[in-house]
Amino acid sequence: MSEEAKLPQKRYYRQRAHANPFSDHQLDYPVKPEEMDWTKHYPQYYPAKEGQEQKKVEFADIGCGYGGLLISMAKAFPDNLMLGMEIRTKVEDYVYERIKALRVQEPGHYQNVSIMRMNAMKFLPNFFEKGQLTKMFFLFPDPHFKQRKHKARIISPTLLAEYAYALRIGGILYTITDVKDLHEWMVKHLDDHPLFQRLSDEECEKDPAVPHVREATEEGKKVARNQGDKYLACYRRIEDPFYKQ
Amino acid sequence: MSLRIPFTTVIHSPSKPEIVLANGKQFIVINTSTGEVVKPINENERKQEYSELYRIMTFNNDGSLLATTGDDKKINVYDTSDWSLKLSRVAHKRINSFQFNHASTEIIIADKFGDVYAHPNKNQEDQKEAEKLEPIVGHVSMVTDMTLSKDEKFIVTSDRDEHIRVSRYPNGYNIETFCLGHKDVVTYIQLLPWNEGLLISAGGDNTVRVWDFLKGKEIQSLNIKEYIQPYMAKATDANSEEPMVRKLAIDASKNLIAVVFAKTNAVVLLEWTSDNTLTYKSTLETESTVLDATFDLQNRLWVTLAPTEEKGDLLAIFEEKNGKYEHLSSKEQHVKQVNSIETGLVEKMPDLYTIFGLRKLLDLPDFVQTPPDKARNKNKKRKVEETK
């Protein structure tokens, strides 16, 4: 098997779980979404072939870790472009190498998935146009346990406005964690945000992405091995109720 | 040896010929027509331990009230007819920008933490009342400036990460659009008084930009580096190598914009021409570095200075003569009068140009170790590449 097609080994890509999202990590980002060059990420889709509409990224995995969700969703949703964002260099390198190898091992597959080293807390609007995304994933996010670190949590009132901006009306935001306290925090903030409405348990179970959310990630598998609980919460992006008066 | 504290911030009343000059722990009011002092420094408090208690000031729309805030997080509101203190409130964090709403019932503030709050324009009942205020808009990074739209249905906020965000108001959780284009911190945003559907912005990337902000569309980007470069003070670190705009002083009656930079011996004048374009007009040289500037009701430009000599002028006045702006001589009655005003005194002058710190060039992370078999190039930092 060629050098390119060998799957990377996780042990060379370990990095500590916590990264400070407020410091500036030497990131590359476009000034605005129109200036982003997606050809390096999705060479089969950018530029669009003649007569075909340009497909854009619709699924975003925020803090995608070792890419478990994306790899498993890539085949389940072959017609959708999906992107993982990860701030930790080594982890992002691992996923990049993994996707590269899979594209060689299985020609025609995994062309719809890619990864980027990015601070989603700060630069989401630089990459995605208003209402571009139809799914956003926040799987096993960093709990930032201390009170003073609560602003660093990936789900916060400040950030929900930005997520609501990127998410199309009707789009779904998925959260899962094994930390009950964090689950309650996320649910409270999402419930409080007027642009999000929680899906019922039945609606969650019917959603085809949910089994991937539960099972596909490395973190999810670890929790299952330790027989921990997984708390799932899904929300739909709705129209602003402010104007319904 | 005591040094005179310069006027770090200056603001002109929208209705009366008066300017308010921030001076450490106090402020001074001068009549811009006569040059007389309306509200002097308190004699007993001249000698100070420096503290910028009037770092930011704003009038309400008819000029009857002045709100001030500074290092102590207090929001003070003064009655401008007699300069008496009407009320005082405390904000959560230090404020970077604020304004009254049109009805003067609220003071909307944007703080260093990135949050925007609407404070009622009345005394705080108790500490609990202050804590109950919920943020209307939140940025992850520091909010540098803010403005409401004319109809108060939208709020525009700029931040340290080059973003200009347009949100609905008061439902600030609903983002309308972004105005993206700046390549460095945005320090100043304002609605153009002659066309309030347009927003003007500036900061650390050498451009002044005009936007149709409701559409998030950039109308024009004017590069102003060449006009100010020769007048820049020597850089003390990576953050102060490139020009940094502090403020845009706008004269609505003449369609003029004075660009105030940090630590430069000049102010750049731009004009908005009849074909709706921003163009360079001239550069006004000063004898020492500029702190702030504002136009008065007679279209004169008042510029506050940070002199290096003890007897240097703290104020320079520019007046239009035959279509050009000229520096009024220091010997002119008017100029002499305002420069002999008693100011606060301090033993050691603090750094008056901390605004350069809004750039992030000094916060580079440590070298990251690469795993074996790595052949990929590391991403280079965009900003370092650009300034080289």
Topology (SSEs and partners):
The complex is a heterodimer of chains A (245) and B (388).
Chain A: E1 57-62, H1 68-76, E2 81-86, H2 89-105, E3 113-117, H3 120-127, E4 133-139, H4 157-166, E5 167-177, H5 180-192, E6 196-198, H6 201-206, H7 210-215, H8 218-225, E7 231-237
Parallel strand pairs in A: 1-2, 1-4, 2-3, 4-5
Antiparallel strand pairs in A: 5-7, 6-7
Chain B: E1 3-4, E2 10-12, E3 18-23, E4 26-31, E5 37-39, E6 56-59, E7 65-69, E8 74-79, E9 84-90, E10 95-100, E11 106-111, E12 115-120, H1 127-132, E13 137-138, E14 143-148, E15 154-159, E16 164-168, E17 175-178, E18 186-192, E19 195-203, E20 207-212, E21 217-223, H2 225-228, E22 245-251, E23 256-261, E24 266-272, E25 278-285, E26 289-295, E27 301-306, E28 315-321, E29 324-327, H3 333-339, E30 345-346, H4 382-387
Antiparallel strand pairs in B: 1-30, 2-3, 3-4, 4-5, 6-7, 7-8, 8-9, 10-11, 11-12, 12-13, 14-15, 15-16, 16-17, 18-19, 19-20, 20-21, 22-23, 23-24, 24-25, 26-27, 27-28, 28-29
Briefly characterize the structure:
The complex is a heterodimer of chains A (245) and B (388). Chain A contains eight helices and seven strands.
